[in-house]
Amino acid sequence: xxxxxxxxxxxxxxxxxxxxxxxxxxxxxxxxxxxxxxxxxxxxxxxxxxxxxxxxxxxxxxxxxxxxxxxxxxxxxxxxxxxxxxxxxxxxxxxxxxxxxxxxxxxxxxxxxxxxxxxxxxxxxxxxxxxxxxxxxxxxxxxxxxxxxxxxxxxxxxxxxxxxxxxxxxxxxxxxxxxxxxxxxxxxxxxxxxxxxxxxxxxxxxxxxxxxxxxxxxx
Length: 219
What we know:
By secondary structure, this protein is an alpha/beta fold. It has five helices and eleven strands; from the N terminus they run E-E-E-E-H-H-E-H-E-E-H-E-E-H-E-E. It is globular, with a radius of gyration of 17 Å. The N and C termini lie far apart (about 40 Å).
């Protein structure tokens, strides 16, 4: 990983601490936060909103696609096992094809879908829910602390948060990792950065693996 030219330190997207020196990959410029361990794409290399939305439009995610549903089931199945019958939830960042919300609905867990590009109904963020899902969204967040605060605010005490994002490998392997090749991915998490997030919001870990994590809100 070659270092980019020296430039002013910028704040970490997650914790706000000063990030380390930038380095350049073929996919952009990145920074590592020594405080919370988040790796972020430098804001100078982000897509603008129109280009970001257009890129999402190239995804062939369909509600009835068996492969996509199997992928989402990695989170949906362990989450459902934790929920009380009839629990209601919110899929935060549901995208243009809210397949996870549909799967939860089919299983008897009424789930609303919110997305800043495709379903921007702010009224949904004024309600309260027994669970919130966020699948393959955390890595897209330009302001993750704001979005996580929104998720925490709508979740009742004792509620469950289900997150799906691929945790990054050790820094020495970052260059070879596929995840940063998506230009809309701006934040790359580790167990350490998720742990910082959980402490910030008072969430306790139920499950944590390479892609799926489940958390319970304590207060």
